[in-house]
Amino acid sequence: MIGGTENRATPPMPRPAGEQGEKIIHRPIGLLAELTHRCPLGCPYCSNPLVLDPRQAELDTQTWARVFAEAAALGVLQVHLSGGEPGARRDLVEITEAAHRCGLYTNLITSAVGIATSTLLRLAEIGLDHVQISIQDSEPASADHIAGYRGAFARKRALALEVVRLKILLTVNVVVHRSNIDRIGEMVALARDLGASRVEIAHVQYYGWALRNRAALMPSAEQVARALKAVDELRRRYQGELVIDAVAPDYYARFPKPCVGGWGQRSLNVTPAGKVLPCHAAESIPGLEFWSVREHSLADIWTSSPAFNAFRGTDWMQEPCRTCARRDIDFGGCRCQAFALTGDARAADPVCHLSPSHEQVIALAAMQHGAPYLYRTSAGAAA
Ligand code: SF4
Ligand code: FES
Fold first, then answer.
1. Segment 240-262, tens digit of pLDDT
2. Mutate to test the pocket of ligand 1, among 250, 324, 361 (most ligand atoms within 8 A of CB)
3. Nearest 5 degrees, angle CA 42-CA 159-CA 168?
4. Percent of the chain that is helix, strand, coil (3-state, to 5)
5. Please, are residues 186 and 214 in contact by the beta-carbon 8 Å criterion?
6. Which ligand 2 atom is nearest residue 207's CA?
7. Candidate of 257, 311, 327 to mutate for ligand 1, largest count of ligand atoms within 8 Å of Cβ
8. Which of 18, 132, 161, 355 has its CA 20 to 30 A from that of 253?
9. What is the pLDDT, as a whole number, of residue 22?
10. The pTM is what?
């Protein structure tokens, strides 16, 4: 989701002092600003951590403005204003304006529940570039059930239409799993009817909340095969009308995805409380030291913080990645997934068929059951 273009205009940054070998530090392209963890919805695959930052720990408006200025100076091109639900911030317009003033492309990622049309109008006036709205399903009752919020579907529909009426570019995000994967065609048709210019279809990634709900969310192999075929047909049907981006389902792949475009290579993620992470799930890896924008500049964090340097380059790799021809293509896959499935963040992502733990992924994909969702709520975290 972060960074679709390569930042070729700016040269690589100098290596940190004393750093040798293959650890070339590129400039980041995208910054994910998690403005808050507050959210009215309870999606069981939420990418937020199980322990959420409380409201009183959130960065204030001025600090976000400084972070955006530092990000622009560092080479960042796009800022993704996300959460939780960013609409829960009363200063969302001021925060967005601060990013816009720094010359950053502003993308609002919203559940659409919690953004008033008057707020959207003000965002349009100050130059918001793009909006991403997630839909949970094409069927209202199922969509509301997945979101854990009655009436969510209707509100998403209404806000999406308003985004298009205000001539802001709209992408519809569709997260697919066992309950909705058979309606990919209907969800893409809904996005087209709403006036979206792009649809992003992503299978659930099993970290955090989704890991807790894995068996309830996991689609069958037959469902995945049908979905891949459906995406091919949909691309043909909507060619020239709608861009359809699709991310393959991890557990059914032979090779892993190049997660976040490589650790510490393209993007950074600032939490509501100001910690800077190389990816949204990085806190799930124990022992990493994250620096905060409260104490360090973004440039300092990007080049010198221990967490960003932990898996840069290839020196940290073990076999089979260390000598693999694909190591500079997929960077050994996802560090968070490697840790979640093997307990070793330096291992090859077990999604890779060359990983000694790959059989485990095949077994986990076969473990599906209809348990009720553990929703993303404080009660869910306690459970
Ligand atoms: Fe990627 Fe490592 Fe698998 Fe090679 S062995 S394809 S580098 S995950
Ligand atoms: Fe953390 Fe993939 S989500 S490296």
1. 999 999 988 888 989 999 999 99
2. 324
3. 120
4. 40, 15, 50
5. no
6. 3
7. 327
8. 132
9. 54
10. 0.91
